[in-house]
Design a protein that fits this description.
52% helix; five-stranded parallel sheet; 151 residues; 5 strands; Rossmann fold; Rossmann-like_a/b/a_fold; UspA domain-containing protein; alpha/beta; UspA
């Protein structure tokens, strides 16, 4: 079973990866796909750069940096995984495309603590995945102290 773990380099991502590792320790046989979505270079950056390939390298490098901690946790536990760095203005759309392209069977993603206004304006990647993905999506709530900070 291939399980997608979208990660963004934050401590919340570590919680998701540790939860996935707990499932493996309790008998789940799975391989994981760690994914990070980066914003593509802006129009201005594309127009002013001397080397468009260098911009792509920056995007790729930044995404790899965001994946590093989660990859280390999985590697230390000897759990099979692959990684993907995506670029797109909308993380949910990029992840939905990845789910289809990679034959993912399930997604484990964390709900990020967001204020009411930000949630109303942007929506949430985890909620959009739950709504539109063709596979089950497990949304992990943020740790209690993060939720308390929003009040």
């Amino acid at each position: 079973m291939k399980i997608l773990l979208p990660v963004d380099g934050t401590p919340h991502s570590e919680v998701e990866v540790r939860f996935a590792l707990q499932l493996v320790s309790e008998g789940l046989r799975a391989e994981f796909l760690l994914a990070n979505v980066q914003e593509p270079p802006s129009f201005y950056e594309l127009l002013t750069t001397q080397d468009p390939d260098a911009l792509q390298e920056v995007v790729q490098g930044s995404g790899e940096d965001m994946l590093r901690g989660a990859a280390q946790l999985l590697a230390q536990a000897n759990v099979p995984f692959t990684t993907a760095v995506l670029a797109g203005p909308d993380p949910a759309t990029a992840l939905l495309d990845l789910i289809e392209a990679e034959g993912v069977a399930m997604v484990i993603i964390g709900a990020r603590p967001m204020g009411v206004l930000r949630t109303a304006l942007e929506g949430s990647t985890s909620r959009r995945l739950a709504q539109y993905a063709t596979v089950p999506v497990l949304i992990l709530n943020p740790p209690r102290q993060d939720v308390a900070q929003l009040d």
